[in-house]
């Protein structure tokens, strides 16, 4: 069984990056990290690649909007060609769409349309030597279509080439069984977001603004998410990626604790 590579989603350190990008990368490298997962990279790929390289960091996975015409703030998103070209500059292997709004998971026809868009993006990504995939939150598991939850309905309509990155915290929200999900998906799970905390209800279908502070996230291994069992249930995952939507404390201490947890599982 291959051992996944340790990584961290840079969104976890977004506030530190805004204050001191170079210093943030230096601190991550000093913690022993060699891989990161990027976000918001399309318009600054060369600059970001250079900054990461100075600190011995590489990015093999990244998040970019592939399935929506806007980024959630009313701004248009880059084209697929722009996104894939930027991914090539950074040396990414896989680009994951990180979020499809809750309203698009309530109807089977709309779910099928989203799957078709992702399949088409995967075909275009392959022409750039890239794998394309999807990263879940919790809104995908709220509704049932044809007797299964919306995420399973979606996954059943994806081309086998499409990769899945399962966020274990959000897949567990609302009491969902993330371990059973991983077993159903099998080798299609190419990456895991290692994230822990209290098991909360899905916040994305309520219509209220999402406040990351409400997630009550803690360092990996210290919350209610079944991380040990999930890692065992995803033997084909290539990356174990630490992430915090919010951390009530020093984010670097939280990441360091997560590294220690994963190192104890042989993931480095």
TrEMBL record:
Keyword Protein biosynthesis: no
InterPro entries linked to this entry: IolE/XylAMocC-like, Xyl_isomerase-like_sf, Xyl_isomerase-like_TIM-brl
Xylose isomerase-like TIM barrel domain: residues covered: 26-245
Keywords: Isomerase
Superkingdom of the source species: Bacteria
One Pfam entry name: AP_endonuc_2
Alphabetized GO MF terms: isomerase activity
PANTHER family cross-referenced by the UniProt entry: HYDROXYPYRUVATE ISOMERASE, INOSOSE DEHYDRATASE
Protein's name in the database: Sugar phosphate isomerase/epimerase
Organism: Streptomyces hintoniae
């Amino acid at each position: 069984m291959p051992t996944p590579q340790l990584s961290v989603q840079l969104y976890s350190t977004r506030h530190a990056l805004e204050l001191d990008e170079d210093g943030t990368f230096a601190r991550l490298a000093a913690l022993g990290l060699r891989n990161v997962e990027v976000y918001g990279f399309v318009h600054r790929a060369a600059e970001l690649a250079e900054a990461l390289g100075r600190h011995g960091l590489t990015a093999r996975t990244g998040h970019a909007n592939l399935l929506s015409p806007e980024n959630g703030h009313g701004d248009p998103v880059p084209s697929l060609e722009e996104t894939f070209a930027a991914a090539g500059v950074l040396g990414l292997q896989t680009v994951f769409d990180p979020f499809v709004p809750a309203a698009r998971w309530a109807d089977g026809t709309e779910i099928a349309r989203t799957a078709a868009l992702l399949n088409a993006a995967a075909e275009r990504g392959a022409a750039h030597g890239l794998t394309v995939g999807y990263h879940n939150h919790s809104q995908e598991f709220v509704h049932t279509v044809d007797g299964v939850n919306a995420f399973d309905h979606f996954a059943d309509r994806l081309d086998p080439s499409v990769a899945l990155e399962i966020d274990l915290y959000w897949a567990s929200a609302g009491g969902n069984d993330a371990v059973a999900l991983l077993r159903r998906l099998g080798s299609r799970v190419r990456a895991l977001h290692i994230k822990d905390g209290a098991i909360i209800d899905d916040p994305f279908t309520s219509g209220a603004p999402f406040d990351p502070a409400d997630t009550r996230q803690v360092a990996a291994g210290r919350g209610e998410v079944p991380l040990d069992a999930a890692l065992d249930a995803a033997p084909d995952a290539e990356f174990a990626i630490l992430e915090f939507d919010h951390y009530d404390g020093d984010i670097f201490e939280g990441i360091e604790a997560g590294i220690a947890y994963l190192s104890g599982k042989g993931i480095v």
